[in-house]
Design goal:
This protein has about 475 residues and is an alpha/beta fold. It contains 16 helices and 17 strands. It starts with a helix and ends in a 10-residue tail after the last helix.
Length: about 475
């Protein structure tokens, strides 16, 4: 259950306390009983205020009370985070460090601002471009932006045909458009047994059925997809063939051909996520190149340039684009053109490639630091990925391990965060290296992880 759903308006009524104090006491109780774990980010103040029907000042004052009690810590520009119950009452200036974030999968900022400033200056200085980015656009995007998107998608082996490309507000928005254009409540979507949480959120919202397909070290198994498609009436397949999140698996060419064969045989539609593959210097051709009329390719810049550059592309056969455009129109009318203009200029000028090269170098540096400490551990890592997939050694269970790490001030993602359906979830965790503020912080986090792995689990560590 989300934090916001935990908090009820009833806590503010008939308490005899000021509202800010009643809210602070309610949150403190959730922290003390473990419902708000260490490192959890509290809701943005304005959003929680709107939900509870109070002013933002009320929520702000409540958060300040939690800080004074030593139960929360504010990170400038990043929000307010829960501290452990054991630290409650500790003065704010004593060992009050923000948690080491090895959970969030984000791009490392590699542009020092000069590229963005120069691009915005060019936009502002060109009356025609300025007028364009402040005007309505066709639902599929401006022709020039679609062409830049088609050029970007060439890196995945696609043909560079702009008539097949739609511009979106990131890959998640593109996925939403595809699902709304193709699926109806109750439809089955086949996906890996460990799959993208954004897909799972959309499936819940749209009442779609996700069916997990068994995986190995290369990702989705063709024979498992064949078995599922033969026994369950499905319409769509969603998969990430390159640098799969969270396992880092990458399909060989032979595996891609085998998956395409099953999709074609059962007349399925493939949704292929290439977001993580953008960091690769030489990605293998997308499975979609083998299924040009049965596939939808999703891509964005969130893992190579920054999640704030909310630009993505969907490539699909032309006969599907009118449906995708209709979904776009119903959703937000169009993709706001300023960000696609920035992306287009960066693609066309080579700046985007420079940012990716810098991103890859930073990822490699961080990975080298982490893997030097993890020598001898059972891990799956890739030089072009910020993720480490780590099965836990006996006798650790994933819940125990995550709880112990939270107490040690380290955030990670557990396998159940990605699990689809009721399949047995592996006792494994995903470590993400890009959100940490420095290699020194990564080293500190990894040493805490190793210290816990070499200790003995206790029942008190169960969340």
């Amino acid at each position: 259950m989300s934090i916001e759903n935990l908090i009820s308006k009833a806590c503010l009524q008939d308490t005899g306390k000021p509202r800010y104090l009643a809210l602070a006491d309610e949150l403190a109780q959730f922290i003390q009983n473990g419902q708000l774990p260490t490192g959890e980010r509290l809701p943005p103040q304005r959003r929680l205020a709107q939900r509870l029907g109070v002013t933002a000042g009320t929520v702000s004052h409540a958060y300040e009370i939690l800080e004074q009690r030593g139960m929360a810590t504010a990170r400038v520009g990043d929000g307010t985070y829960v501290r452990s119950p054991e630290q409650a009452g500790t003065p704010q200036n004593a060992a009050n460090r923000a948690p080491v974030d090895l959970a969030h999968n984000v791009a490392i900022p590699t542009d020092d601002g000069r590229a963005l400033a120069a691009t915005l200056q060019r936009v502002a200085a060109d009356p025609q471009v300025l007028r364009q980015v402040l005007s309505y656009q066709p639902e599929a995007g401006h022709a020039r932006h679609r062409q830049s998107g088609a050029e970007w998608l060439r890196r995945f082996g696609l043909g560079g045909d702009a008539s097949r490309v739609m511009v979106t507000h990131g890959a998640q928005h593109g996925l939403s458009c595809v699902l709304r254009a193709l699926a109806h409540p109750g439809d089955v979507v086949f996906t890996e047994t460990l799959s993208y949480p954004g897909l799972q959120a959309l499936a819940r919202l749209m009442r779609l059925q996700l069916v997990g397909v068994e995986m190995d070290e290369e990702g989705m198994l063709p024979q498992a997809l064949e078995h599922a498609a033969r026994n369950i009436t499905g319409k769509l397949v969603y998969c990430s063939p390159s640098l799969h999140n969270p396992t880092n698996s990458t399909m060989s060419l032979q595996r891609r051909q085998a998956i395409a064969k099953v999709v074609q045989k059962h007349n399925l539609l493939l949704i292929e996520d290439c977001v993580h593959a953008a960091s690769q210097a030489a990605p293998l051709p997308a499975v979609s190149t083998l299924l040009p009329d049965q596939s939808f390719v999703l891509s964005s810049f969130s893992k190579v340039a920054g999640p704030g550059l909310r630009v993505g592309y969907v490539e699909a056969a032309p006969q599907w684009l009118s449906k995708l455009a209709a979904a776009m129109r119903a959703d937000c009318w169009m993709t706001a053109p300023l960000l696609p203009e920035i992306a287009s200029q960066w693609i066309d000028s080579g700046v985007m490639e420079q940012l990716i090269v810098a991103q890859r170098a930073s990822m490699t540096e961080r990975r080298d630091v982490a893997m030097a400490l993890l020598q001898g551990m059972d891990c799956r890592a890739d030089a072009e990925s910020p993720l480490i997939w780590m099965p836990l050694p006996e006798p650790w269970r994933v819940g125990q391990f995550a709880a112990a790490l939270r107490q040690a001030g380290v955030l990670i993602r557990t396998a159940d965060h990605f699990a689809v359906g009721r399949a047995v979830t592996p006792h494994a965790v995903r470590i993400s290296l890009n959100a940490a503020r420095s290699t020194a912080e990564i080293e500190a986090g990894m040493r805490r992880i190793l210290s816990i792995l070499h200790s003995t689990p206790t029942t008190q560590m169960e969340p």
